[in-house]
């Protein structure tokens, strides 16, 4: 799946990923390749991204919103 993690100031991540773990406002959850469409609010926490080459990246956020549709995840975040 293609993942974009964007703040008002910059693009924190843009690329292909196998897994994204997110701090939802009601608890942590993961999305995988071909996940069903979803829109969710995000709370304070850490986003974990595992890319296609199994490299893991962590990004701390204060809040945000996720939209997953047609195998593309867009995360609008505040840091």
Protein topology:
Elements: E1 2-6, E2 11-24, E3 27-32, E4 38-42, E5 45-51, E6 56-61, E7 63-69, E8 72-78
Parallel strand pairs: 1-8
Antiparallel strand pairs: 1-2, 2-3, 2-5, 4-7, 5-6, 7-8
Task: Kindly describe this structure.
With 79 residues, the chain is an all-beta fold. The protein has one domain: ATP Synthase, domain 1, CATH 2.60.15.10. The protein is built from no helices and 8 strands. Strands 1, 2, 3, 4, 5, 6, 7 and 8 form an 8-stranded mixed beta sheet that branches. Strand 5 (45-51) and strand 6 (56-61) form a beta hairpin. The mean pLDDT is 97.
CATH superfamily: F0F1 ATP synthase delta/epsilon subunit, N-terminal
C-alpha Rg (nearest Å): 11 Å
Low-confidence stretches: none
Given this structure, which CATH class is correct?
Mainly Beta
Strand coverage percent: over 45%
End-to-end distance, in Å? 23 Å
Order of helices and strands: EEEEEEEE
- What is the CATH architecture term? Sandwich
Query: What kind of sheet is the major sheet?
Result: 8 strands, mixed
Estimate the mean pLDDT confidence.
Answer: 97
Broad structural category = mainly beta
Number of strands: 8
Short descriptors:
single chain, ATP Synthase, domain 1, 72% strand, globular
Entry summary:
This protein is mostly beta strands.
């Amino acid at each position: 799946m293609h993942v974009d993690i964007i703040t008002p100031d910059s693009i924190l991540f843009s690329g292909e990923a196998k897994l994204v773990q997110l701090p939802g406002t009601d608890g942590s959850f993961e999305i995988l390749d071909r996940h069903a469409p979803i829109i969710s609010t995000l709370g304070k926490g850490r986003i974990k991204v595992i890319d296609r080459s199994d490299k893991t990246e962590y990004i701390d956020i204060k809040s945000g919103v996720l939209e997953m549709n047609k195998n593309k995840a867009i995360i609008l975040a505040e840091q």
